[in-house]
Amino acid sequence: MKVGVLALQGAFARHAAVLTDVGVAPIEVRTPEHLSGVDALVMPGGESTTMSMLLDIAELRQPLAERLAEGLPVFGTCAGMILLASSVADGRSDQESLAAIDMDVRRNGYGRQIDSFEADVNVGGGGLPGWDTPFRGVFIRAPVVERVGDGIEVLASVDDNPVLCRQGHVMVASFHPELTADRRIHELFVESA
Ligand code: GLN
What we know:
Elements: E1 3-6, H1 12-21, E2 26-29, H2 32-36, E3 40-43, H3 48-57, H4 61-69, E4 74-77, H5 79-84, E5 85-89, E6 101-106, E7 116-121, E8 135-140, E9 144-148, E10 153-158, E11 161-167, E12 170-173, H6 184-192
Parallel strand pairs: 1-2, 1-3, 3-4, 4-12, 5-6
Antiparallel strand pairs: 6-9, 7-8, 10-11, 11-12
């Protein structure tokens, strides 16, 4: 399986390193040609307004929207999650969302005072195989999930806010799983892709 990492901006290099660790050779995606060669895609954290603009400049928005509609497995983290959400509050007016997962998010929704923090993320309430210990989630100016649609599987919440969700082939995390040594979240994505 060829797993791409959207490499326009943000934390793509760390994601690529983690994918290598979990046994897949990552492909950096910067052009429509790169995108057409991958079977799954990671959309990293960074700055969603900039990434949204770069998607247009690279002429990737339309081909990406088409691949997503066809069921391309995708994992969006932080800014990547913002780009995949159906509605974004406190975004920039020209920021466009791919609306691939039925949820509303608020950019920088945890506020300035705690704009970065760590928290234990209990995937599946700790009851799934391999998830008896929590994942240490690093949140950096993270989006808050304000609404999830009926079809959304909430895999983990922190203080009643969903932080790891899945809808079919689309998985999103509001934190940065590439920044810790724990590889379980990437394994979860690769196994289900
Ligand atoms: N606040 C950033 C944004 O709006 C996301 C931060 C992140 O990806 N760590 O895009």
